[in-house]
């Protein structure tokens, strides 16, 4: 039976592909979420990404990844699956520069000791090419990453939320640590300036990781 989400022609969804993706994810999350919940998450994630995407060729696969990340976050927030390491969420406006660099750097330096997510309060169409170039200089490839909208599930799952100029868009949950980093937006900046932003973020990320390591020790 076609779900109500698949019956919305205005969204121009590739229904068969998304249904298959939902079925596979439902198997992965069997016993945690119902197939209906998984399907709703897949279709909602596709619709959310489609609002800002210009090219839709790979959107179903990205939506499946996004839905999987959100389902894991939701399961963690509800206590259905354990959190083995601290969860850190980086949030900026477009999730195309600062938060992407911070997430990549923390994941790199953390070496599995921390799990990282990033999101944007108003996600852009793609990551800034100059940001990809600056990170590649450090051997970090952002080519497979994409801007993601900020959702309550990833905030709820986080232990530390680091905001970077996203204002009041980030939901506040009790029991979490909130940090706000004042950083220049790399949009329309030169490679030299983006390198400086990258290095500033790197210093902050290393300090945060040291704090998390101390707490976890």
Question: Could you characterize the architecture of this molecule?
Answer:
It contains 7 helices and 4 strands, in the order αααβαβααββα. It is of the alpha/beta class. Strands 2-1-3-4 form a 4-stranded parallel beta sheet. β1 (87-92), α4 and β2 (115-120) form a beta-alpha-beta unit. α2 (35-50) packs across α3 (59-77) and α5 (129-136) packs across α7 (191-216). The longest helix is centred in the C-terminal third of the chain and has 26 residues, at 191-216. The radius of gyration is 18 Å and the shape is globular. The model is unreliable at 1-11 (pLDDT under 50).
List the helices and strands and how they pair.
Blueprint: H1 15-28, H2 35-50, H3 59-77, E1 87-92, H4 98-110, E2 115-120, H5 129-136, H6 152-157, E3 160-164, E4 177-180, H7 191-216
Parallel strand pairs: 1-2, 1-3, 3-4
The N- and C-terminal alpha carbons lie at a distance of 51 Å
DSSP strand tally = 4
Rg measurement, Å? 18 Å
Portion in helices: 40-55%
Give the overall shape: globular
Please outline what is shown here.
By secondary structure, this protein is α/β, with parallel strands linked by helices.
List key phrases describing it.
disordered N terminus; 4 strands; 217 residues; 4-stranded parallel beta sheet
